[in-house]
Amino acid sequence: MKVTRGRSRTAPERDRPGWLRGAPPPWWARVLPTALLVGVCLAELISPEPLDIGFLLGAIPPLAVLAHGPVTTAVLGALAVVVLTVPVFALDDPGSTDVLTVCFVSVLSVLLSYVRSRRDAQLVTERAVAEAAQRAVVPPLPERVGPVRCAGLYRAAQRGTLVGGDFFDVRAGPYGVRAVMGDVQGHGLSAVATVASLLGAFREAVLDQPDPEAVAARLDRRLTVDSADDPHAELFATAVLLDFSADARVVRIVACGQCGPLLIRDGQVVEPDVEPGTPLGLGLAEAAPPRAVSVRLRAGDRLFLASDGVTEARDADGAFYPLAERLPGLAAEDPAALAERVWSDLVRHCPDVRDDVTMLVLGPCPPAGP
Fold it and tell me: What Enzyme Commission number(s) appear in the record (predicted)?
């Protein structure tokens, strides 16, 4: 086994969605139309001479469209017309053309705000349906499955999606707790069908197959059958399967075209000697069958699995993300938040992550009390 020490890192900063990615409008977008209206009024009242700034009032309704509904947009547009025409503000005697222009812009802005509000409501509904469908494929990971504590993180490469080309799951069955993490060919929505097929096969195999090698063979057969009608499909996936004993003190690991997990123990990272076998979908029955490697676990141990979106991420100089070096320092605090801390550290190393990123943290936990 190979041992690597690491250095400590700072606490992670959680990634937040931006305004254009579905988050509510920022406060300044809501305040800006009113602030502009108040600013024009104050400037006219304070100035000893009339100011030719009435054209600014024409910008208030379009700005209101960005963050307000049709009612608020109509009110702000009406106020802009009132300020433009009331003599007390003395906006350099605006003509009828200026007033009609602001009125037209206000009416058009109300119409646009109505259309935007309806489209936003429709998009919210469609996004809720899409999220429900995607979470049905990859449901949230429970904190504990039998004697195994779990934590996971998934970041799809395609923005606005919850599922891409990576997948993971942890399930309990009659033969113990099994876990899988893998990466199918491609990423984004085009790979979701393959992910759903593999996860369905895994969940069935957990109930039927007595050992992890047989589970891997079932997944391999699933991909082979799915691509049988298209000889040029070249459908394959890499995966790591873990089979925990009844007390989670021993884990059997099968790697199919992918490196095995990293073992975090006593502030160090230990890399178990797991040989990556043939990827799924290439015919495990015809090639060399996968070989399971048994690893004994102690209290406090953590198995860390990461997709190639983590290990192959490069910084501006082309250097790969040094996962094994960073893990010990990042795992020094609460192990349950390890995946989130690694994600934040990864983004600092490579701000423009273009691949699906998946992390899975597993470890034995004491039996629950009565």
Answer: 3.1.3.16
Q: Which helix (H) or strand (E) holds 290?
A: none
Do 73 and 152 belong to one domain?
no
Tally of CB atoms within 10 A around 257: 19
* 272 in the same domain as 203: yes
Three-state secondary-structure class, residue 27: helix
DSSP 77-121: HHHHHHHHH-GGG--S---HHHHHHHHHHHHHHHHHHHHHHHHHH
Pairing state between β 148-155 and 302-306: unpaired
Query: pTM to 2 decimals?
Result: 0.69
Q: Considering its fold, how many domains does the chain have in total? A: 2
Q: CA-CA distances (angstroms) from residue 45 to 42, 89, 93, 224, 323?
A: 5, 6, 15, 78, 63
Q: Give the tokens for residue 87.
A: 């003599």
Are residues 92 and 152 located together in one domain of the fold?
Answer: no
Distance CA 150, CA 219 (A): 22
Q: What does the pLDDT profile of the chain (370 residues) look like in tens digits?
A: 544 444 333 333 334 555 665 567 888 889 999 999 999 888 888 888 877 787 888 899 999 998 899 999 999 999 988 888 887 766 656 666 678 888 999 999 999 999 988 888 887 787 777 677 767 777 788 889 999 999 988 887 766 666 677 889 999 999 999 999 988 876 556 677 888 889 999 999 999 999 999 999 899 888 888 777 665 566 788 999 999 999 899 999 999 888 889 999 888 898 898 888 888 887 765 666 778 899 999 988 999 999 888 988 888 888 899 998 888 888 766 667 898 899 989 989 988 887 888 899 999 986 554 4
The whole-angstrom separation of Cα 330 and Cα 337 is 9
